TrEMBL record:
It is a peripheral membrane protein. This is Transport protein Sec24C. Pfam families: Gelsolin, Sec23_BS, Sec23_helical, Sec23_trunk, zf-Sec23_Sec24. Residues 710-809 form the Sec23/Sec24 helical domain.
Length: 960
């Protein structure tokens, strides 16, 4: 449920989504708004250039024989799907007449008033036969779009005019060459190496396209049009896989391939207005629901009996419409108020919940944030306490989250310090000075005060400022080296419970909790066990204390965000359980120094506090007949098999849902999924956020492969491998991934491709990067331990990966490597990324590498002295101070562009990435080379070419 919804949606009507009722031939649109009235949610605007398939006037002519450029040595290969602008990531688009490659695909634009409705969708599909149901998938070969219709991407560029892009060959393509056309039987031919040829060697054009970077449309997806809302009547989760669900008899997917629904995106903070999901308040009656399965009203429900009842698309039951919700139907069978009600025309929306949806039948209070600061010797000596108190006062608390339209935040705040005792502070607004209350009995923790502990910032600002000024002075002479942690979390939990509020605990902790108290841990670190069969003994919790504590936190709606500042082992595998179960975040700053690491820590803290979150959340997935949710992956707690419980959810948290196909599906009816999240907003309002997804069903396995969402599949496989690694040895995990990849590709070769010699490696177009990404997963630090990584770092990465969304795992497994030595020639754009291989580095170049958590600036030893002078104010690369993690603010274009590019890339991530400067042939270069994932690893892990050979052999063994 990650809340990243970029994109502007001003003033244009979306095309009909899968879940939105379609327009039938001859159908008239309900009367639009009058001149003085605002249009409803579904009212169409006048089309502009680039809408309804018309290219913008600025595009210029499209020449019929103009194809995409051939691959240029040294640059990322150009996919036949992609039409790349200089410096921009490739933009993939589906071929005409194919079923949409994801639920982002829309059924077609709505007609303008006064014009007849279209008889086919923008992808050439027949009109929907039933309102609210998706069109049947096309199984035909590639066809041209209707005359005058051109699919356009977000930049207004039309698709390549050459032959359609089918599966490409595994051998290098010459300039202007195109992949073979689809073979007989409407099956794509597949990616082939020529007879007797093997996958390309390093330095040659790689198979298929370059791994997509964040911000671009995933392979096979049509980017949303500028200004168009993307989810009319059918929302898009993080990614859904596959958009064409296999019909017919149940199957577990090709070659055992699972069918996961990608991370659901919950928080709308990054969706520019008016794209925040509209809030629907139906008063005391509450949301309209199906009487049998309790599904919520959505655009796919069919109204019958003159609008007096509706038929549920999930269970088929007919439910009476409440009198206050009744509206007449038009001659098409659609309600006349469809476009005035978000729940009838949009895929994502919110309902205001009634008391029936609240604990104990009472509306909730606004949440609270409790800041709990370790004041032990290590924390004081590193400058952490002084830094926290200073910046909390200046620019953290003033950025507390608030509801849209509110002048001030309703979030309450409280403060605790601790080492071997716990100190509560009374900061009531009418006090002249804050008051400290000490709890020394850690075996029976209690909250010594209620009134004055959790306060509104605006009412106690002066007292809070005084407290934060005094804390560093009060503990300046502290010599306490032992700390507690379990009682601290218990104290915060009890404080929120006593105040009847949900909320967050911000805990700033420095060392292993070894003091005599509940939750005491022993040092069990043994890095040599990583990568062996015994590694699970140090990657799983050493006891269940923090697991039970996390479950108690979920029951109260108390999320725990841990900020760790260790100089030694702190047993992340054990204490992170409270973060995993409560939906909290874990941050780790090893060997923290305020002057070097302070900026990174403060940016992370500020981002976290400002972040819009949902509190005390419960999620349930409903699916139509024939499919059901069977497994969930992510950081949360489940007390039963259906409800996902999260004390808090923010944009860093995502989850995967595995959907099982266990009954025959009707290709004409489609498949439907609804995700409902009951939560408390930052303003204290109980709400229901609803996401709806409508999917096509298909009977041809080729359609399933054609529309597979690779990035979602990799995300799912990686999270599943993380869970498996806690119960199996690393070798079994790696072999399991490789076996699954080989089975998937062997299934495609056996069932979907045309006959070809066994010397050819054939891959489906949508999965031609599956071997590349799979090798990156196998080599990842989150799954493959060794002497290069500490036990705590391994546990930290496993926890982080378990909550990553699709775009984050893309760059985590295949980092971006960007040339930075020629920024001036690219204007305001960041240069295009190159392949992650040491062979792509030039000794007179400068390259930036980032994977969402780490950032490196690699500087060749022959880089131009003028460039070094302009950026670092020294004469040569050898004189650069690599201990600095911040570039000088120099007044010249080169320095300014480099800093702007770094800040822009940092702005794309949820975590602030510290810059590490690496000189060629320096001691830090092996660390940098570790992230060049196409090469052989320092620990002996396979290169991409070696992995491809291995998979090729596995496929041959399966087929022989």
């Amino acid at each position: 449920m990650n809340p990243n919804y970029p994109g502007s949606t001003q003033g244009q009507m979306p095309p009909t989504g899968y879940g939105a009722p379609g327009m039938n031939p001859g159908q008239m649109r309900p009367r639009g708004p009058g001149p003085m009235n605002n249009p409803g949610y579904g009212a169409p605007p006048k089309p502009g250039p680039g809408q309804y398939g018309m290219p913008p006037a600025s595009n210029g002519p499209q020449y019929p024989n103009m194809g995409p450029p051939g691959n240029v040595p040294g640059k990322p290969p150009v996919s036949m799907h992609n039409n790349m602008a200089p410096g921009l990531p490739p933009q993939a688009r589906p071929s005409p007449m194919m079923p949409p490659s994801s639920s982002r695909g829309m059924s077609g634009p709505m007609p303008r008033q006064g014009m007849p409705p279209p008889t086919s969708s923008s992808t050439g599909m027949p009109p929907q036969s039933r309102p609210g149901f998706p069109p049947a998938p096309s199984t035909g070969a590639h066809q041209s779009p209707p005359s005058g219709m051109t699919m356009t991407d977000r930049y207004g560029q039309g698709p390549p005019s050459g032959p359609p892009s089918g599966p490409s060959m595994m051998s290098p393509s010459g300039p202007g060459s195109f992949p073979p056309p689809p073979g007989p039987g409407n099956f794509p031919q597949g990616n082939q190496a020529g007879p007797g040829q093997f996958p390309p060697q390093p330095g040659q054009t790689p198979p298929g396209q370059f791994p997509p970077q964040p911000g671009q449309a995933p392979p096979g997806q049509m980017p949303p049009q500028p200004g168009q809302p993307r989810y009319p009547g059918g929302t898009m989760p993080g990614q859904s896989f596959p958009p064409n669900y296999p019909g017919g008899q149940p199957m577990s997917g090709p070659g055992g391939m699972q069918q996961p629904a990608g991370p659901k995106k919950l928080d709308p903070d990054q969706m520019p207005s008016p794209y925040n999901p509209p809030i629907v308040n139906l008063g005391e009656t509450g949301p309209v629901r199906c009487k049998r399965c309790k599904a919520y009203m959505n655009p796919n429900m069919m109204f019958i009996d003159g609008g007096r009842r509706f038929q549920c698309v999930f269970c088929g039951a007919a439910t009476d419409v409440p009198a206050e919700y009744f509206a007449h139907l038009d001659h098409t069978g659609r309600r006349i108020d469809t476009y005035d009600r978000p729940e009838l025309c949009l895929g994502s929306y919110e309902f205001v919940a009634t008391k029936d949806y609240c604990k104990n039948g009472a509306l909730p209070n606004a949440p609270a944030f409790i800041f709990m600061i370790d004041v032990s010797y290590n924390s004081i000596k590193s400058g952490l306490v002084h830094l926290i108190c200073e910046r909390l006062k200046e620019d953290i608390l003033v950025n507390l989250p608030k509801e849209v339209g509110q002048e001030e935040s309703e979030v309450r705040v409280g403060f605790v310090t601790y080492a071997k005792e716990i100190h509560f502070y009374n900061v009531k607004g009418n006090l002249a000075q804050p008051q400290m209350l000490v709890v020394s009995d850690l075996n029976d923790v209690f909250v010594p005060l209620l009134d004055g502990f959790l306060v509104k910032l605006s009412e106690s600002e002066a007292v809070i400022d005084s407290l934060l000024s005094q804390i560093p002075e009060m503990f300046a002479e502290s010599r306490e080296t032992e700390t507690v942690l379990g009682p601290v979390i218990q104290a915060g939990l009890d404080a929120l419970k006593s105040a009847d509020r949900s909320g967050k605990l911000y805990i700033f902790h420095t060392s292993l909790p070894i003091a005599e108290a509940p939750g005491k841990l022993k040092n069990r670190d043994d890095r040599k066990l990583l990568g062996t069969e015994k590694e699970k003994t140090i990657l799983t919790p050493q006891n269940n204390f923090y697991t039970k504590l996390g479950q108690d936190c979920v029951g109260v709606g108390c999320s725990v965000d841990l900020f760790l500042f260790p100089n030694a082992y702190v047993d992340v595998a054990t204490i992170s359980e409270v973060c995993r179960l409560t939906g909290g975040n874990l941050y780790k700053y090893s060997y923290f120094q305020a002057d070097l690491d302070g900026e990174r820590f403060l940016e992370d803290l500020k981002y976290n506090v400002m972040n819009q979150s949902a509190f005390d959340a419960i999620l349930r997935v409903r699916a139509s007949t024939g499919i059901r949710a069977v497994d969930f992956l992510g950081n949360f707690y489940m007390s039963n098999t259906t409800d996902v419980e999260m004390a808090a959810v923010d944009r860093e948290q995502s989850m995967n849902v595995e959907i099982k196909h266990d009954d025959k599906l009707n290709e004409a009816d489609g498949a439907f999924i609804q995700v409902a999240v009951l939560y408390t907003s930052v303003g204290g309002q109980r709400r229901l956020r609803i996401h709806n997804l409508a999917l096509n069903c298909c009977t041809q396995m080729a359609d399933l492969f054609r529309n597979t969402e690779l990035d979602t599949l990799i995300n799912y496989m990686a999270k599943h491998a993380v869970r498996t690694s806690l119960n199996s040895n690393p070798k079994q995990v790696r072999e399991g991934i490789m076996s699954q990849v080989a089975q998937i590709l062997a299934c495609y070769r056996k069932n979907c491709s045309t006959p070809a010699p066994m010397g050819q490696l054939i891959l489906p177009e949508s999965m031609k990067l599956l071997p590349l990404y799979s090798n990156c997963v196998v080599k990842s630090d989150a799954l493959q331990g060794g002497s290069e990584i500490s036990t705590d770092d391994r546990s930290f990465l496993m926890l982080k990966l378990n909550s990553m969304d699709v775009s984050s795992t893309q760059v985590f497994f295949y980092p971006r490597l960007i040339p930075m030595h020629d920024l001036e020639s690219h204007g305001d754009r960041i240069p295009a990324a190159i392949r992650c291989s040491v062979e792509r580095l030039r000794d007179n170049g400068v390259y930036l590498l980032e994977n969402g958590l780490s950032m490196f600036l690699w500087i060749g030893h022959n880089v131009e002295p003028q460039w070094v002078q302009k950026v670092f104010s020294v004469q040569s690369a050898a004189q650069i101070d690599i201990d600095k993690c911040k570039l000088n603010d120099l007044d010249n274009p080169v320095s300014q562009k480099l800093r702007d590019a770094i800040n822009s890339i940092r702005g794309e991530r949820c975590r602030y990435m510290k810059l590490t400067i690496v000189r060629q042939r320096d001691k830090l270069e092996p660390w940098f080379n570790h992230f060049l994932v196409e090469d052989k690893g320092n620990n002996g892990s396979a290169s991409y070419v070696d992995f491809l050979r291995h998979i090729y052999g596995e496929i041959r063994n399966l087929l022989s």
